[in-house]
Amino acid sequence: MLKESQYNHFIKKFTSFVEKLIVTIMILLMSLILVFATVELIISLYNDFFKSGVIISLNSLMDVFGGFLLILIGIELLETIKIYLNNNVVHVEVVILVAIIALARKIVILKIEEISLDVMAGIGILILSLSVAYFFIKKSGIITLSIGKSDVLKMNPEDINKQ
Prior knowledge:
Elements: H1 4-51, H2 58-87, E1 89-91, H3 92-109, H4 117-140, E2 142-146, E3 152-154, H5 157-162
Antiparallel strand pairs: 1-2, 2-3
């Protein structure tokens, strides 16, 4: 029979293994999705520019910009997942930036004349909220949030670039 401390140690090791396995699978899937999305964007650009024989229309241009931003969001998410796998920390700054990029993507692909005033006000509030959050994160120096621990880690921006 296992002692309680051995049992707790086993459970911690097992859950850590499962967590790393799941995060590794997520990295592989995200990488695969990003490759497919990039290929799809290349094919779309080729069809829009070369096959149609027409200079790209405004609607096509918005779709292309949306595609670029979507791939950028995926790259940032992949980076966040990789950092989590290596350090078991979530970079709060990166998460806020991903949200800002996702909102920017939504704004780029929106047709302004088709949205209501309350939706526009909501988007404005979201932009303001994310900007304020980003400002306070940068000002406070809180860059990462440790998962599974009660403390918040402070890191210098130079330390982030080393990771």
